[in-house]
Every structure is written in structure tokens, then in C-alpha cells.
Amino acid sequence: MSAIETNQKKSYKGFASDFFREIKKVVWPTPGVTFRNTFITFVAIFIVGVFVFLIDFGVINLLALIMNTSGK
């Protein structure tokens, strides 16, 4: 086994041990916090979707009015 292979194995072991040590330090959210944040995210997505729809609808009607293609 060469010195490079030995160093790589040590670095992998060091990485793995550092990884698991850091994972133990993570403060994971409770299910209640997770559900609340998910709900807030869905509400925000819905509000932005409605806003984009209204802007799109308004621009389409404004362009139709300007170009007189409303079918009248």
C-alpha cells in the first residue's frame, strides 16, 4: 500500500468521523415546526401564484384593448 492510499483512507475516516460529529450537533425541527413552515410556504406560493395570474390577466387584456383584438 502506498503512502497516498494510506493518506486517502485516513482522510476518508477523518471525514466520516467529522461528518457524524457535526450531524449530532444539528438541532432538528420538531414536526410541528415543520408542518407550520410547510403551510406558510404553500400559502406564500398560492399568494404569489394569484398575483402572477392577475398581472398576466391584466397585461393580456390591456394588450387586447390596445391592439383592438378583443373580437368586437
Q: If you had to describe this structure to a student in words, what would you say it looks like?
A:
With 72 residues, the chain is mainly alpha-helical. The protein contains 2 helices and no strands. Helices cover 83% and strands 0% of the residues. The chain has one domain (3-67). It has helices at 3-25, 31-67. The radius of gyration is 28 Å and the shape is elongated.
- Count of helical segments? 2
Q: H/E element string?
A: HH
The whole-number mean of residue pLDDT values reads 86
Low-confidence stretches: none
**Biggest beta-sheet profile:** none
Q: How many structural units, i.e. domains?
A: 1
Task: Provide the β-strand percentage band.
Answer: under 5%
Topology:
Blueprint lengths: L2 H23 L5 H37 L5
Task: Provide a brief overview of the structure.
This protein is mainly α and 72 residues long. It contains two helices and no strands. The mean pLDDT is 86.
Task: Provide key terms for this protein.
72 residues; 0% strand; mainly alpha
